[in-house]
Amino acid sequence: MSEIIESVLDDIERMHKAGVINTVTVQKFKKLANVPEPKHLSQKKIQAIRKKTHLSQAMFARFLNVTVSTVQKWEQGVNEPAGPALVLLNLVDKQGIKAVAL
């Protein structure tokens, strides 16, 4: 857990003890703080995830809202996905492409 999250949780506990927020709110913050970090994905894993979806790099990029160049660079190991893209890739890996289809 990051120092920032720990600091926020400490502040939440102090606010609860002071009667500023209730127990339900404290529990909600604690639940949010325990969201796991997305799993790192290697270039081979990213390519395997895409191939499992039977999509071209161009279509896969559209589902993830990134450029084709971005997908190519991930699969070549030039760049690594981060932030929302990494979360979406993990989601597609676990639940399939329908999990991100609108």
TrEMBL record:
It comes from the Bacteria. GO terms for molecular function: DNA binding. Keywords: DNA-binding, Plasmid. Pfam families: HTH_3. Signal peptide: none annotated. CDD domains: HTH_XRE (cd00093). The keyword DNA-binding applies. This is DNA-binding protein.
